[in-house]
Write a structure and sequence with these properties.
The protein is mainly α and 291 residues long. Helices cover 69% and strands 0% of the residues.
């Protein structure tokens, strides 16, 4: 009888070295996340213990209760309003995501379907704007927002974060629209649909992965943005989590347990979004990188 079992190729020394290197990089990357979570569940006496304790002997959730303002018998107490910071970040991130999609979809569609004069220059401008750091934009935007009453307002931060995320969103969605055959839209126009109806009912559902990737990018950009939030929101009750986490650092002491618990809560939305939408996010990125 012929042995039809497929033999596994032996690992070469090069593959073993690359595998070991990949595992080492993975451990180095994930160790701060592990340490953050481990510190958040440690009793106060084990947080600064020498030698360090990797995993607490008696895990506790008192730091999370303190951050969320729940009653606890533990000596861990904090006056930081964690739920308020989380709500502010949710408002800013959701607003940035919706506004980015609202502006990026028609902008990218117009660049993909029309032969406007100076399109190459405009695309070069988008690429340049994408590389500008937020610290370079904060002073001009502050001068612009001050007379408009957008300082100490979530709307001002939403507009600034949208300006930061919009160039990337337009570039990605444009390449996604270019992959949709124009014959589908022409068939819809012949059947009596308007250009807007063809866009919303035919084209947009076909670029769902690109829309999800752009949505995740704009949401997470606003969720972790620090410079605009610190510069435009002086009132503590309006600040998001990226600024609020520094409230745990005092002049004489730092609430390490509560700060790490709050950091875990900040990281959860990003991790959950990537895990649940990983397939759409990766396909959206790769689809937008073909052309």
């Amino acid at each position: 009888m012929i042995n039809i079992r497929r033999q596994m190729p032996p690992f070469s020394s090069t593959k073993l070295v690359l595998l070991a290197l990949a595992l080492t990089i993975t451990v180095i990357y994930f160790f701060p996340i592990f340490w953050m979570f481990s510190t958040s569940i440690k009793p106060p006496e084990q947080i600064l213990q020498v030698p360090p304790v990797l995993l607490p002997s008696q895990p506790q959730l008192e730091s999370y209760k303190a951050v969320l303002g729940m009653k606890s018998d533990s000596p861990i107490q904090t006056t930081i309003n964690g739920p308020r910071f989380l709500l502010n970040s949710l408002i800013i991130s959701a607003g940035t995501m919706c506004l980015t999609l609202l502006l990026a979809v028609p902008g990218a569609y117009g660049l993909a379907r029309t032969r406007i004069k100076g399109r190459t220059v405009y695309m070069l401008f988008l690429l340049t704007a994408q590389m500008l750091p937020s610290v370079l934009l904060v002073i001009p935007l502050f001068v612009l927002f001050k007379p408009l009453g957008l300082i100490n307002s979530h709307l001002g931060v939403i507009l600034a974060d949208t300006a930061l995320a919009l160039p990337f969103a337009i570039i990605m969605l444009r390449t996604s629209f270019l992959q949709i055959p124009i014959d589908l839209e022409e068939a819809a126009l012949i059947d009596g649909s308007s250009r807007l109806q063809a866009l919303l009912q035919i084209v947009v559902p076909l670029v769902r992965s690109g829309l999800i990737a752009v949505s995740m990018f704009s949401f997470l950009t606003a969720w972790g943005e620090f410079v605009f939030a610190l510069s435009f929101l002086q009132k503590v009750e309006l600040q998001p989590v990226s600024v609020g986490i520094f409230s745990f650092i005092g002049m004489y002491t730092t609430q390490w347990g509560s700060m790490m618990a709050f950091a875990v809560m900040i990281a959860l939305p990003a991790l959950a979004a990537f895990i649940l939408l990983q397939r759409h996010f990766i396909s959206g990125l790769t689809a937008g990188a073909v052309k």
